[in-house]
Specification:
The chain has helices at about 10-15, 20-30, 40-50, 60-70, 90-95, 115-120, 140-150, 205-215, 235-245, 250-270, 300-305, 335-345, 355-365, and strands at about 55-60, 80-85, 100-105, 125-130, 155-160, 165-170, 170, 180-185, 195-200, 290-295, 345-350. With about 375 residues, the protein is of the alpha/beta class. It has 2 domains: about 10-245, Aspartate Aminotransferase, domain 2 (3-Layer(aba) Sandwich), CATH 3.40.640.10; about 250-365, Aspartate Aminotransferase, domain 1 (Alpha-Beta Complex). It has a 4-stranded mixed β-sheet. A 3-stranded parallel β-sheet has the order 3-2-4, with helices on both faces. Helix 2 (about 20-30) runs antiparallel to helix 9 (about 235-245) and helix 4 runs parallel beside helix 5 (about 90-95).
Length: about 375
């Protein structure tokens, strides 16, 4: 019997660390300090050292990391923030929640990341920030973006939710703009046991402001010069992340090895580009939170892989500018063609660290049409 291959298998990541994680949770329970406290402070110190950034502020989610970063820059009503149309909803939702106007631009069709030329063309009198996304773990062209933004005094907020541990020419993402935002959602390369996030910066004043804003804008307690929010990371999540953080580099290395295998198999197959296009590696610092191919026959391919018991996912089926809630922006169908085309062609394959040679080969064989349905399909892929 051929067993199913899940799209993501968290058991292989968390299972070996079970006792350490339970001990860490027990430590928090025994301390009775569940909000902020020494676990969060220790995690912030450890993750800052791991990432090579001066300041790391733990928050309640990747979404809240984006929101508090925008708040720290004073983004609000009447402002515009330029961002990509091809990303998870939080990227744009947080801009709208501040009262600012998201300005969506198109992507580079090969990397899926924001196109710097489109950013430059979109800058206007009300542009207060640019929010690039290091999508799927591959860093954006930050050099080109900084050449556009820095002379104009436009700060950048890096959405690095999928890119923890990634780097560009040796420099860590999260330290390439004014602020960096990370997510610890369980499916990320470093995930906790619920929601969690992180804001990074090299700016002392911004770091202090984020710390104040995450706790209702209070400093000292019960005295509020700012209106903030409840963006605190709880101590149990911090304790879990402290156990898992030392393993991050090893997990990233395994993802890169898996991606290199796929790259080699798909390149050697030399299929017509209309059938299959593997993602080009633009930066050695890619961390492959997802391995996303594109195919003009995406739905057909996904159905075939499902028949073979192979889990896949579509990131993302609809671009942000075509979401119903953003109709008021007037960026209708056809305005951002590369983002729109990507939504019809992208397919994410299993890439988790413990995939292993046999399962990697099965996935590649199936994508290339060299596999057959398993004799028993009672097991279904787990997302």
């Amino acid at each position: 019997m051929t067993t199913a291959i899940p799209f993501l298998d968290l058991e292989t990541e968390n299972g070996p660390l079970r006792q350490q994680i339970l001990a860490a949770i027990g430590r928090v329970v025994d301390s009775n300090r569940f909000i902020m406290g020494p676990e969060v402070a220790a995690f912030e110190e450890e993750i800052a050292a791991q990432l090579g950034v001066p300041h790391a502020i733990a928050v309640s989610s990747g979404t809240d990391a984006l929101l508090v970063a925008l708040m720290a820059l004073g983004i609000g009503s009447g402002d515009e923030v330029i961002t990509t149309a091809f990303s998870f909803f939080a990227t744009a939702g947080c801009i709208a929640r501040t009262g600012a106007r998201p300005v969506f631009v198109d992507i580079d069709p090969e990397t899926f990341n924001i196109d710097p030329r489109e950013v430059e063309a979109a800058i206007g009198e009300r542009t207060r920030a640019v929010l690039p996304v290091h999508l799927f773990g591959q860093p954006c062209d930050m050099g080109a973006l900084r050449a556009i933004c820095d002379p104009r005094g436009i700060p950048m907020i890096e959405d690095a939710a999928q890119a923890i541990g990634a780097s560009l020419d040796g420099d860590p993402v999260g330290a390439l703009g004014a602020l960096g935002c990370f997510s610890f959602f369980p499916s990320k390369n470093l995930g906790c046991f619920g929601d969690g996030g992180l804001v990074t910066t090299s700016d002392v004043a911004l770091a202090r402001k984020v710390r104040i804003l995450r706790d209702h804008g209070s400093e000292p307690k019960y005295f509020h010069a700012l209106v903030g929010g409840n963006f605190r990371l709880d101590a149990i999540q911090a304790a879990v992340l402290r156990v898992k953080t030392p393993h991050l580099e090893g997990w990233i290395d395994a993802r890169r090895r898996n991606a290199a295998y796929y790259d080699e198999r798909f390149a050697r197959a030399a299929l017509p580009r209309a059938v299959l296009a593997p993602p080009p590696l633009r930066h050695a610092g890619h961390v492959y939170n997802q391995y996303v191919i594109r195919s003009a026959r995406r739905d057909e391919l996904q159905n075939r892989l499902a028949e073979l018991g192979i889990g896949t996912a579509i990131y993302y089926p609809r671009p942000l500018h075509l979401q119903e809630c953003f109709e008021y922006l007037g960026q209708g169908s056809g305005t951002l063609p590369e983002a729109e085309r990507a939504c019809t062609e992208v397919l994410a394959l299993p890439i988790f660290p413990a995939l292993g040679p046999e399962r990697l080969a099965r996935v590649a064989d199936a994508v290339l049409g060299d596999a057959h349905p398993p004799a028993n399909q009672s097991e279904s892929p787990r997302d």
